[in-house]
Write a structure and sequence with these properties.
Blueprint lengths: L1 H22 L21 H4 L14 H4 L10 E10 L5 E12 L5 E11 L3 E2 L12 E2 L2 E12 L4 E14 L2 E16 L5 E10 L11 E4 L8 E4 L10 E11 L5 E12 L5 E10 L3 E10 L14 E12 L5 E10 L7 E9 L1
Antiparallel strand pairs: 1-2, 1-18, 2-3, 3-6, 4-5, 6-7, 7-8, 8-9, 9-12, 10-11, 12-13, 13-14, 14-15, 15-16, 16-17, 17-18
Length: 354
């Protein structure tokens, strides 16, 4: 297993070096050149309530979004569902479902699957002859499915890898791709209260749209036959990211209260770098309050902002134990992130730990 860990670590270091070589201090010259940007949207309530700052300390299903190494911290079995009202007023909703399971005799490994689907509603079909619609409706297809594996190599070190299948398009035109994530977490201190994490996200081959929708038919001038012409779509790259983070748990008393402070630096291959900070207060593990803030260069300058999500975030969770020994838990999660424009993003989640 240590050889696997060394391979994961070496791969992250090499890929991180290549990414930093290209995107040191951000890459504003390439803003908007990537595709599949839905891979950057965090649709899970707990981590989004901290503005994605907790890559070093998060665990379970949600770690498959930000740092798959945290999957190894799954207690036993976890199910999570979330519903996101993305940029309220835009009419876009995101449904996400995830499952994680401990593996092995020593419970040192974990396996997880997550599915994220975007709902844009029904869109009227317009043509040159019917610019106001009336020819029916169509739906945009945008879904990604992730399969992850993480191993706890020691009490201090977790490492994991994840493969994500991507499918997006409209009727008759679509694109498919594959992205690879990898991550490492290091936990130390007398109570494992000090956390460090690094993750590399969305590394993979370019994607290209294709399908019958890009085919045109025409008759050559003076000809008596019809030709079919295939219009080629330009390939686009995935929105790769490197995330480096740390967190510290303050145990406010023996068992009842804890405050976690977290911070993360995000290097984007096609955007300005981001800095996030977050905090989570938990009481008896029954009630958790969260807050976070993300900063990105240009976010306060009119016309210069490259993301609508920069700024504050907040969230809350209510965690209820059940079962004969109260070892099983059911939780309701909520988060809100400010956006400009639109009226922010709301995420509602439910989770069960068995």
């Amino acid at each position: 297993m240590m050889n696997i860990f060394k391979l994961i670590t070496t791969g992250i270091i090499i890929a991180s070096g290549l990414l930093f070589t290209n995107v040191y201090a951000g890459n504003p010259a390439r803003i908007g050149e990537e595709g599949a940007t839905e891979l950057l949207i965090n649709s899970w309530a707990r981590s989004s309530g901290m503005a994605d700052a907790n890559i070093a300390s998060l665990s379970g299903v949600e770690s498959m979004m930000l740092n798959v190494a945290g999957l190894a911290e799954t207690k036993k079995t976890e199910f999570v569902f979330s519903r996101t009202n993305w940029l309220t007023g835009s009419g876009i909703y995101i449904n996400s479902f995830g499952f994680s399971q401990k593996l092995g005799k020593d419970n040192n490994s974990a396996f997880g699957v997550s599915v994220t689907s975007f709902d844009f509603g029904s869109i009227p079909i317009t043509t040159a002859n019917q610019p106001e619609g009336g020819a029916g409706t169509f739906n945009i297809q945008m879904i990604n499915i992730a399969v992850g594996y993480s191993h706890q190599f020691s009490d201090a070190i977790n490492g994991g890898v994840l493969v994500r299948a991507i499918d997006e398009g409209v009727p008759s035109v679509s694109a498919e791709g594959v992205a690879l994530d990898a991550g490492v977490q290091y936990n130390t201190g007398a109570q494992r209260q000090i956390h460090f994490g690094v993750s590399l996200k969305n590394v993979g081959p370019t994607m290209t749209f294709g399908g019958d929708g890009l085919t045109l038919e025409g008759t050559p001038q003076g000809g008596a036959y019809v030709l079919s012409l295939q219009s080629r779509s330009a390939p686009y790259e995935l929105p790769s990211q490197l995330r480096l983070g740390g967190a510290y748990d303050f145990h406010l008393d023996s068992t009842n209260q804890m405050l976690t402070i977290a911070a993360t630096f995000v290097s984007n291959a096609f955007d300005n770098d981001q800095f996030t900070i977050g905090a989570e207060y938990s009481y008896h593990t029954y009630l958790m309050l969260r807050a976070g803030y993300m900063y990105q260069a240009g976010m306060y300058t009119a016309g210069a902002a490259s993301t609508v999500m920069a700024g504050p975030a907040a969230g809350v969770s209510v965690d209820i134990p059940f079962g004969k020994d109260k070892s099983k838990r059911f939780a309701i999660d909520y988060s809100y992130r400010v956006s400009a424009p639109f009226a922010g993003t709301h995420t509602f989640g439910a989770r069960m730990n068995l």
